[in-house]
User: Which sequence fits this backbone?
C-alpha cells in the first residue's frame, strides 16, 4: 500500500525517533511512504482556538496536497500523531459538512491551483495497522514476539474523543485498537485507569503542576498494575510522559522509571528490528535498561525484576 | 441475588416473560456515608423492553426489590438534568440511555451504574451538586449584566448573535461534563466545563456589558479558561450537544483576540507562540515554545523557566533527541510564502468566518462514496450555489468591544 504520509511537527522535532522508526518499519509492513514535506502544522487545536478559518485553511491545504498524491496513486493519507488525527478530523468535519463553507476556505488555496474536495481518508498509523494491514497479517509478520512484555496502552485524547467525529463504533472499535495490536504482537495488555485520559501536555506551559500531576498519575497507575512500559500513538503525550518524566517524578514524589514507546517502535521490535535502529536509545527513560531484547522481548529485567 | 445464565450477550431468552420484555442485570454502586460502611456493588435483575431507559430499570429495582436505592430524578425526559450518573463508566442521563444501548457498551453483560465523579456522594447514585457544580456556577456571575441605563423597552440585538449562544443555552445543568472533567480530577479548583460554557452564554450575548471583566477575571485565574486541558471529555459527556470545551476555546479566542488580555498564566502568549511559529516556519519550533510562552527569551520568567528545564534539556541533548543545530535553526517549509499569504488573507477579513455544526445544518448529499474521485464527483453535483446564511456574520457582532 502507498500512503500520502504526514509526519507532523513533533516527530521531526523533539521526538525524532518517531519519524525515524516509521521510516524504518514501514517498508517491512509493505507501506510505501510519500512524504507531504510541503504541508504545515495541523495547529494542534490551538490555531483553531485562535481562528477557525485559519486552522481549516491550513489543513485544507494539507488535505489538497494529500489528494494530489492520491491522484498520482497513493491510497489514502496517513498521519502518525493522535493530535494531528484529532485536529485534522475536526477541520475536515466542518469542511465536509458544507459546500459553501468549503468553497470559502478553498479560496485561500486557489492561487497555487490547490483545491480540497470532500471525502479525504486520513488515518493514523494505528488505524492503518488494524483496518488496512489487518491484525492477522500483522501477527504473521512477527518474528520476535513480545513474550511476557506487559504493555500499558496510552491513546491520547485526540484519537478517542469525540467518538462520533472519529467514527468509533462497534464495527470500528478504534478505542480498542492499541490493545488489539499489543496482543497481535505477542504482548500482554495491562489494564489501568489512565489509558484514555489526558497526559497533561496541552497545559504544560500554562498550568505546569496540574499537567505534570496528570502525567504522574497515569504513569504511577500503570506501574501499580505491573506494566513494563507504555505505548502511545501520540508524540505530544510522549513529551510529557517520557521527556518530562524526571520532573514529573519529582512533582508527584515517586520514582516512576516507566519507559514509553512510540507505536511504530513496539511494532518494529516484534518484527525483529534492533532497539537502536528504532531510536530507543533517544528516550529519556531508556527502555533498553529495563527490557531484555535477546530472543523474544521480555519485560521486567534489571531494576524492575521484582515486579 | 439470583444468578442468571447469560447466554445471549447477557440477556436471557426470558421465554416465560411477555413478548418484547427482556431481563437485564443492573450493577449499582451503593454507598451510605451515615452507615459507616464502605461502598459496595449490588446486583438487581430487572425485566423491561430494551428500548426503556436505565432510569426505568433503576426505578423498577427500587419499587420491587429495595426501596432504599438512592437516585435523583424528575422529568424522565432528558429535560430536568436530575439523573446524571455514570453508566458503564460513561457519564450521562439515566433517563436518556436505553437499556439496549447500555448493554451494547457493557464489557461483562451487566449494566453498571455509578454516581458521577468529581463530586462527593450523598447516597448511592446521588451526588452533592451544591458542593461542586452549583458553587462553580455561582463563581462566574451567571446572570446578565446589561449596560445602564436600561432601554425603555426591549433590547434589539442581531438575530445571529442570539443563534450563536443557543448552544451554551442548551445546558440543563446535569453535571455530566463536571463528572468526567480531567483537569478537575487533578485540580479541584478548576472552574470547569459547565460554568465556563455558562460564561460564554453571557460573553456571547451582545446585551451583556461586562465581557472584558468576565474574560479578564477568568484568564487571570490560574484555575480559569487556561486550565482546560482540551481532552474532549466534556464534549463526549454532554447529553445536549453543548460541547463545553468548544465554548472555552471561544472564550480564549475572544479574550486574546478581541480584548487583548495578556494573562499571567501564559495563555495568550502560548497561543501566539504557536500561531507565530507556524506563520514563520510552517511547523512548530518547539525550542521557542518555552521562552515565547513565558514572555520572550529576555524575560526573567523565561530565563527562570529555562534554567529549571536545564536537566531536561541536557538529557535531551545527551540522548541526541535534540541537537544544538536542530534547536537553534528551525527548518522552514519550502512554500512558506503560501502559508504567510493565507495568514494575511484570514487576518484581513472583517469579522470571523466560522462554521458551527450545532447551528448550521450539514449538506444533505451523503451516500458515502468510497474513492476520492467518486467523492469529488458526487460533491460537484450537490454543492449549494449560494453560501449559507449567517456563515460570515456568525460572530461579527461580537467584535464590538
Assistant:
Amino acid at each position: 500500500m502507498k500512503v500520502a504520509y504526514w509526519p507532523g511537527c513533533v516527530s521531526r522535532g523533539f521526538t525524532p525517533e518517531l519519524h525515524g522508526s516509521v521510516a524504518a518499519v514501514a517498508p517491512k509492513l509493505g507501506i510505501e511512504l510519500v512524504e507531504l514535506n510541503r504541508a504545515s502544522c495541523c495547529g494542534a487545536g490551538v490555531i483553531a482556538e485562535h481562528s477557525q478559518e485559519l486552522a481549516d485553511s491550513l489543513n485544507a491545504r494539507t488535505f489538497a496536497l494529500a489528494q494530489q498524491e492520491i491522484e498520482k496513486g497513493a491510497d489514502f493519507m496517513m498521519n502518525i500523531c493522535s493530535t494531528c488525527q484529532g485536529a485534522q478530523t475536526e477541520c475536515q468535519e466542518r469542511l465536509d459538512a458544507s459546500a459553501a463553507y468549503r468553497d470559502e476556505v478553498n479560496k485561500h488555496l486557489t492561487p497555487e491551483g490547490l483545491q480540497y474536495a470532500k471525502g479525504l481518508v486520513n488515518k493514523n498509523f494505528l488505524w492503518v495497522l488494524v483496518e488496512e494491514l489487518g491484525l492477522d497479517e500483522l501477527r504473521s509478520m512477527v518474528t520476535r514476539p513480545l513474550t511476557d512484555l506487559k504493555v500499558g496502552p496510552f491513546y491520547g485524547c485526540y484519537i478517542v474523543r469525540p467518538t462520533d467525529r472519529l467514527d468509533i463504533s462497534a464495527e470500528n472499535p478504534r478505542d480498542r485498537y492499541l490493545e488489539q495490536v499489543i496482543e497481535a504482537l505477542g504482548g500482554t495488555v495491562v489494564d489501568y485507569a489512565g489509558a484514555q485520559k489526558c497526559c497533561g501536555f496541552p497545559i504544560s506551559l500554562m498550568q505546569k503542576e496540574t499537567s505534570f500531576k496528570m502525567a504522574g498519575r497515569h504513569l504511577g497507575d500503570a506501574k501499580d498494575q505491573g506494566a513494563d512500559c507504555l505505548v502511545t500513538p501520540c508524540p505530544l503525550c510522549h513529551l510529557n510522559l517520557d521527556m518530562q518524566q524526571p520532573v514529573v517524578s519529582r512533582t508527584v514524589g515517586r520514582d516512576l522509571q516507566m519507559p514509553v514507546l512510540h507505536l511504530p517502535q513496539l511494532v518494529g521490535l516484534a518484527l525483529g528490528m534492533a532497539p537502536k535502529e528504532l531510536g530507543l536509545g533517544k528516550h529519556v527513560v531508556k527502555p533498553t535498561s529495563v527490557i531484555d531484547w535477546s530472543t523474544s522481548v521480555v519485560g521486567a529485567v534489571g531494576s524492575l525484576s521484582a515486579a | 441475588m439470583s444468578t442468571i445464565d447469560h447466554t445471549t450477550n447477557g440477556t436471557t431468552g426470558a421465554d416465560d416473560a411477555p413478548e418484547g420484555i427482556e431481563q437485564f442485570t443492573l450493577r449499582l454502586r451503593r454507598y451510605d456515608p451515615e452507615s459507616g460502611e464502605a461502598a459496595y456493588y449490588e446486583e438487581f435483575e430487572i425485566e423491561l423492553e430494551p428500548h426503556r431507559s436505565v432510569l426505568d430499570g433503576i426505578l423498577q429495582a427500587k419499587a420491587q426489590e429495595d426501596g432504599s436505592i438512592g437516585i435523583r430524578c424528575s422529568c424522565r425526559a432528558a429535560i430536568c438534568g436530575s439523573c446524571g450518573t455514570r453508566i458503564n463508566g460513561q457519564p450521562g442521563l439515566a433517563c436518556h440511555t436505553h437499556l439496549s444501548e447500555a448493554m451494547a457498551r457493557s464489557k461483562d453483560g451487566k449494566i453498571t451504574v455509578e454516581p458521577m465523579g468529581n463530586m462527593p456522594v450523598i447516597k448511592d447514585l446521588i451526588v452533592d451538586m451544591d458542593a461542586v457544580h452549583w458553587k462553580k456556577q455561582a463563581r462566574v456571575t451567571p446572570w446578565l449584566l446589561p449596560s445602564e441605563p436600561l432601554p425603555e423597552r426591549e433590547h434589539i440585538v442581531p438575530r445571529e448573535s442570539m443563534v450563536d449562544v443557543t448552544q451554551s443555552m442548551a445546558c440543563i445543568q446535569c453535571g455530566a461534563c463536571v463528572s468526567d472533567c480531567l483537569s478537575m480530577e487533578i485540580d479541584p479548583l478548576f472552574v470547569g466545563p459547565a460554568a465556563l460554557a455558562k460564561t460564554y452564554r453571557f460573553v456571547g450575548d451582545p446585551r451583556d456589558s461586562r465581557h472584558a471583566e468576565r474574560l479578564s477575571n477568568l484568564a487571570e485565574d490560574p484555575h480559569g479558561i487556561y486550565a482546560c486541558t482540551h481532552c474532549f471529555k466534556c464534549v463526549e459527556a454532554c447529553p445536549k450537544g453543548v460541547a463545553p470545551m468548544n465554548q472555552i476555546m471561544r472564550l480564549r479566542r475572544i479574550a486574546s483576540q478581541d480584548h487583548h488580555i495578556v494573562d499571567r498564566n501564559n495563555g495568550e502568549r502560548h497561543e501566539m507562540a504557536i500561531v507565530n511559529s507556524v506563520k514563520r516556519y510552517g511547523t512548530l519550533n518547539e525550542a521557542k515554545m518555552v521562552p515565547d510562552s513565558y514572555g520572550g527569551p529576555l524575560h526573567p520568567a523565561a530565563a527562570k523557566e529555562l534554567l529549571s528545564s536545564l536537566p531536561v534539556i541536557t538529557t535531551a541533548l545527551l540522548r541526541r533527541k535534540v541537537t544544538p543545530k536542530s534547536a537553534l535553526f528551525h527548518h522552514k517549509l519550502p512554500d512558506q510564502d503560501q502559508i504567510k499569504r493565507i495568514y494575511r488573507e484570514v487576518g484581513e477579513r472583517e469579522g470571523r468566518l466560522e462554521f458551527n455544526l450545532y447551528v448550521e445544518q450539514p449538506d444533505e448529499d451523503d451516500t458515502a462514496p468510497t474513492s476520492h474521485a467518486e467523492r469529488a464527483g458526487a460533491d460537484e453535483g450537490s454543492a449549494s450555489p449560494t453560501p449559507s446564511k449567517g456563515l460570515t456574520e456568525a460572530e461579527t457582532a461580537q467584535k464590538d468591544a
